[in-house]
Amino acid sequence: MSTRANLPTIGPLLWYRDPFAAIAWLERAFGFERRMVVEDGQGGVIHSELTLGDGYIMVVGPPSGRAVSPVAFGGRSTQSVHVQLRDGLDALCERARGAGAAIEREPADQPYGDRVFTCRDLEDHPWSFGQTVQSLSMEEMAEATGHEIKVQGGTP
Amino acid sequence: MTPTFRSALFYQDPKAAIAWLEKAFDFELSMLLEDADGNLAHSQMSFGDSYVMIGQEWSADHKSPKSVGGKNTQTVNIHIDTDIDAHFARAKAAGAEIIAEPETQFYGDRTYRCRDPEGHMWTISQTVSDVSREEAEAASGLKITGWR
Known about the structure:
The structure holds two protein chains of two kinds.
Chain A: E1 10-15, H1 19-30, E2 33-39, E3 45-52, E4 55-60, E5 79-85, H2 89-98, E6 102-109, E7 114-120, E8 126-132, H3 138-145, E9 148-150
Parallel strand pairs in A: 1-4, 5-8
Antiparallel strand pairs in A: 2-3, 3-4, 6-7, 7-8
Chain B: E1 5-11, H1 14-25, E2 28-34, E3 40-47, E4 50-56, E5 74-79, H2 84-93, E6 97-104, E7 109-115, E8 121-127, H3 133-140, E9 143-146
């Protein structure tokens, strides 16, 4: 349907104990915009779509069954979200820090050409943010990282 | 285009996960970094306009569902344009553990849910009818703010 076509194929879904607090925090800390919220009528969220750049995530909760928030799981996670920015990485890090994000790795240039910082959000979900500051060829990247790189089509 | 979001999934055996995701979901390996011992350091798989990253359990806090009793703190949604029932059949044939068979939802998407061999949950959907917010609220009894 044309109404769905402007979202990318894949979207991460994150479980939160308090999804409304999470949505408000994600707007404040990372600049997400609330596109849709489906409430369960008991303080929970069964579906939502928050957009940033050309992408979207879903925030839902409270978790049940096999789903769990990291904050109720000893800080452990089974997935994380990587956000690739076009610009403004250092400013976003300060904005997130100001909102209470726990910065785990301060912004730093990586050997593969991206500047990266990582943090935990208000319920301990891990996030990484990257911005390409130097475009490297695969050969240059392999040399810089010391890893063998195998590519099978597509642009990384 | 560089997509804004990429989910990074933690696996006990990421190379087996890559092979399974190729077979089950038609993901394509676009980048694989190995260390000198042939261990996976980083990888990206593409599907449509998007990527996921398949990696190791890299700390005590970053674990496969297989290592933590099948729990998931995040999952991945895949939205496809065509033939979700064929997608389902392919995943099922590859050994996906089916949580919910394809079913058309009140908001106009047909969806199914499954678990991969290490217990990561995936939701796959295809929009099959154009439903308004008012229609979706009436059908579900839920309060909906915003719409697609």
